[in-house]
Amino acid sequence: MPNEPVTVSRRDLLSLIGTLSGSAAMYQAMTSLGFAADSGYKGPIKLDGDPKGASVLILGAGLAGMTAALELRKAGYRVQILEFNSRAGGRNWTLRGGDSFTELGGVTQTCEFEQGLYLNPGPWRIPRHHRAVLDYCRRLGVALEPFTQLNHNAFLHATGAFGGAPQRIREIKADFQGQVSELLAKVTQQGRLDELVTKEDRETLMQALRSWGALDRNYAYKANLNSAEARGYVKDPGGGLTAVPIPSEPIALSDILKSRLWRHLQNFARYNFQTTMFQPVGGMDMIGKAFVREVGEVIRYDAKVTRIQQDEHGVTVTYTDLKAPGMPQQARADWCICTIPLPILGQLPVNVGGRMKAAIDAVPYSSSVKIGLQFKRRFWEEDEAIYGGISYTDLPIQQIAYPNSGYNSGGKGVLLGAYIFGPNAFEFTSLPPAERIARAVEFGAAIHPQYRAKYENGVSVAWHRMPFTMGCAGDWSEAARAEHYANLCQIDGRIVLAGEHASYIPAWQEGAILSSLDAIARLHERVVKA
Amino acid sequence: MPNEPVTVSRRDLLSLIGTLSGSAAMYQAMTSLGFAADSGYKGPIKLDGDPKGASVLILGAGLAGMTAALELRKAGYRVQILEFNSRAGGRNWTLRGGDSFTELGGVTQTCEFEQGLYLNPGPWRIPRHHRAVLDYCRRLGVALEPFTQLNHNAFLHATGAFGGAPQRIREIKADFQGQVSELLAKVTQQGRLDELVTKEDRETLMQALRSWGALDRNYAYKANLNSAEARGYVKDPGGGLTAVPIPSEPIALSDILKSRLWRHLQNFARYNFQTTMFQPVGGMDMIGKAFVREVGEVIRYDAKVTRIQQDEHGVTVTYTDLKAPGMPQQARADWCICTIPLPILGQLPVNVGGRMKAAIDAVPYSSSVKIGLQFKRRFWEEDEAIYGGISYTDLPIQQIAYPNSGYNSGGKGVLLGAYIFGPNAFEFTSLPPAERIARAVEFGAAIHPQYRAKYENGVSVAWHRMPFTMGCAGDWSEAARAEHYANLCQIDGRIVLAGEHASYIPAWQEGAILSSLDAIARLHERVVKA
Predict the structure, then answer these.
(1) CA within 20 to 30 Å of B110's CA: A114, A393, B165, B395, which one?
(2) Contact between chains at B204 and A512 (C-beta distance less than 8 A)
(3) Does B344 contact A at CB distance below 8 Å?
């Protein structure tokens, strides 16, 4: 019955497409058929098969290390973690009032934030497509709330533009989009798009540009209620006899172009920053703490690894107990999962092969500084109607981020007063913490003059001076990826590396967890087949 | 010393600009100087002066009525509210399991949602620039959480496009923006923009289009890691040895134009829908309930107004006690603030002047239907990674909105399964509630096939059938505004109207509150000066 309609399930259809056309086509088809196939994470890992009593020593109780411990123990392995710090989590870290930490160089800071306020000096946001992080949050009971990346009412600021006055993001965004639409509509009307777009499409394009660009019926972007509905009003529509709105005057495209504020618009469009993003309620370390509830008893804290030595039968790790230095300690297991950040690992004696060794040395860590500032009142909300989100500036502080919780509640608040990368980060790292904070207050006052009167205290984390990472995250070049990435991730004898540096998503927790899951899957396969 | 620099405070400068150039210029200047001047709300209203024991009868315990009661009582007035329903809030309303209500026509629905789940059948989101609503939330202790309007991972759906398959918003958004940028870059390179943009600006424009449109170095928008960083991947970057990302294939501009899905993009750009938006934690009626904590004792519930009669000395309102119908009751006060929706007010005998009477009759109310659907599991999160936000479709249901709380927590969930305006709303209103719900499930299954297996129960509110409003909100035409708006808002003898219909922000709670504040300010002025 060759002409009868055939009912095929979506799954069968996918499998057919996969067979006929290879995996990329299949993935594409899966996406169009509505499956959320974009993540490499396919749900809780299944490590079937008998580990035969094998033991695994895990170096580092960050998210990569604790993920490995949790899953391997569940699969029947004996596991132990050695952790440098007196706490778990690694860069999954939240600073609250009373917390203290010491930088390389010896300066100790004690955070003085009021109760309930905090700073996430490391990761602070979770994209919705970071399926592994989200799944562990669900499994471990970590409550999430939205993280606002794009707040239309936050600022874009360039020292040399608009007399130094910060501009609302909505204004730059709407005015750029509106005037780009106006230009394209003009050339379309002039017949200059005739070779590029069909006649039928040109008519629809004009409609689309008018809608999308908030153009008027003459395809112009100018001060009227249309553009006000995109960029905002001078006076909003109101109620009663004082209700008539006043539209605002767009910024000329030429001024936007010269200001270079358009550079920041892509920060709101990028895949990793698209809505909906999350943060754990109460601080990012709620994730680390949830892992500790599961695997806390296998973590040995204050253990500074000094040597990693493998032989045919296992791995011996030498470490110093930082609370009782003296005789070096040793731990031994059949296998070792090492999540130690590369700038530190590269300095340790580790007898891995030349390829992995070269890979370890090939990846510099980016420099980054975060500064948290406590203020007497939430002036950004009360005076400027900025609730969450980020302002961008060309000042060395680069970003000011507003808290994504406790909205509209009055009282004190903590801003991320600087989030610095690149040369500015090296410069700030070289300063004593108090000086970093003073500069953040001084620079920030150019955007929020309330800083000077309302500032109370601050804390600063310069990642290159953190003794447990000596940097922010793995900074892979394309060339290094091509030459070294596979060598970094391959199991070398009885040692395998994991962490954000062993991923294509450096600096993100998802990279740490996915690299760990990939590493333990391969390790387990080797153990089961042995 | 005429050449010495003068230090002027921002406030003095503003006042100078105001004096010299009138209020529009001053508003504009205020905005550029960083004041959040855009709202008509300037903080808690101050009603100075002695009301001399005057009494005010308020009709309707919605937000307009309760705002008036709260502020007038604080200023020394004697106030009473008559409310038709057995609850306060009016359209500020949340449906939870166990709640029941009866439509015009007599059908009663009882909501069967599981505990903790709810639907806001009326207002459901609060823009950050609705300063009056936010200020009352702060003053009355209503906790807020973000409302997600734009979720890049939600769907746009057109029955006749892409074989009926829903498309991710991020794909349509990025592909439209990318290809518009590509077109404009092309004509710029061809010299076709030379008369419109200066040479210097053209170079910067090319850079901006490349950044903003996710173009490659040849200013092309096509499948590569650039465009993937805007529209998403077929396979996301991952960790370990399975980490390499696979970019996705953009949708051709011509297909986007023909699909007309671009129409929906403006829903995410409009001023009222820009980030950051809010919802009260636990349901929109938390605002109404907070007002009731303040003014509950002056509300007489179940009071159906049948006549409003003013004379030189006061206003007499006749009403029926719906719990004990029989003899009509009367209430009298020196003044009356009437917030009764116009479709109902227009049917009552009210002795106001011809102008106000004509205004009352000039404003039809829009039709709208909301349908809440409870499902066995949150498949939109678990299967499709959609956390909050809204999918748009050309099906009669028009929108599907996902809950903005309880993210990633598993368990059951309630979707807004339809949010309907226009002709579809009239059509749905004419159906019995069970039939409306059945259709919402049927239509929704075209976007989420999981609907059929996971649907549990539903509830439907057709605003034209709600006896306390007989419509969704005031639907002002430009012509009606010009002729009738001022007449509607003017005090007529001893009666003044308030509510979202007496504002330029119909259907928004801010309109109700601002109209009320404007009305009581004028009323108070009259009382004090009398």
Answers:
(1) B395
(2) no
(3) no
Q: Which of B171, B182, B234, B500 to substitute to test the interface with A, most A CBs within 10 Å?
A: B234
B44 contacts in chain A (CB < 8 Å): none
Residues contacting residue A42 through CB under 8 Å, at least 6 positions apart: none
Q: Verify that B65 and B104 share a domain, yes or no.
A: no
Q: How large is the average pLDDT for residues A442-464?
A: 98
CATH of the domain at A138: 3.90.660.10
For residue A430, the distance in angstroms to the closest alpha carbon of chain B comes to: 32
Determine contact, residues A135/B407, Cβ cutoff 8 Å: no
Eight-class DSSP state of B130: -
The reported pLDDT for the residue numbered B132 is: 97
- The percentage of residues in chain B with a pLDDT greater than 90, rounded to a whole number, is 91
- Does residue B37 register a pLDDT over 60? no
Tens of pLDDT, residues B275-306: 999 999 999 999 999 999 999 999 999 999 99
- Are B178 and B124 members of one domain? no
What is the per-residue pLDDT across B178-215, written as a single tens digit (0 to 9) for each? 999 999 999 999 999 999 999 999 999 999 999 999 99
pLDDT at B13: 44
Taking a contact as any Cβ pair under 8 Å apart, which residues of chain B between 353 and 392 contact chain A?
383-385, 387-389
Which ipTM score applies to this complex?
A: 0.93
- Tens digit of pLDDT for each residue in A192-250? 999 999 999 999 999 999 999 999 999 999 999 999 999 999 999 999 998 999 999 99
Chain pair A-B, CB pairs under 8 angstroms: 384
Is 80 exceeded by the pLDDT of residue A86? yes
Backbone φ and ψ of B318, nearest 5°: -100, 140
Does A40 contact B385 at a Cβ distance shorter than 8 Å?
A: no
Collect all residues of chain B within an 8 Å Cβ-Cβ radius of residue A516.
239
If asked whether residues B370 and B359 sit together in one domain, one would say no
pLDDT attached to residue A37: 53
Residue owning tokens 């010495």:
B4
CA–CA distance, A427 with A326 (Å, rounded to integer)? 36
Compute how many other C-beta atoms are within 10 angstroms of the C-beta atom of residue A208. Answer: 24
Same domain as A187, residue A145 = no
Ramachandran class of B372: left when φ > 0, alpha when ψ lies in -120 to 50, beta otherwise: beta
Average the pLDDT over A148-156 and give the result: 97
Report the alpha-carbon distance of residue B284 to residue B96 in Å, rounded: 12
Interface of A with B in 264-303 (CB under 8 A): 265-266, 269-272, 274-276, 278
CB contact under 8 A, A239 and B518: yes
Q: Which residue of B has its CA nearest to A128?
A: B385
β-bridge mates for residue A233, sequence order: A247
Q: Return the percentage of chain A with pLDDT > 70, whole number.
A: 93
Give the pLDDT mean for A149-169: 97
Chain B, 395 to 434: residues with Cβ < 8 Å from chain A are: 404, 407-410
User: Alpha-carbon distance B408 to A143, whole Å?
Assistant: 8
Expressed as residue numbers, the domain containing B309 is 55-89+291-363+477-529
Residue of A nearest to B146 (CA): A146
Selected for mutation to probe chain A from B41, B137, B236, B258 (highest A CB count within 10 Å) is B236
Task: State yes or no: pLDDT of A8 exceeds 80.
Answer: no
What is the longest distance spanned by two Cα atoms in chain A?
A: 86
A143 interfaces chain B, CB cutoff of 8 Å: yes
Q: Among residues B445, B465, B485, which one ends one of the domains?
A: B465
Cβ distance A239 to B165 less than 8 Å, yes or no, reads: no
Listing DSSP states for B360-389 in one string gives HHT--B--EEEEEEEESS-HHHHTT---SS
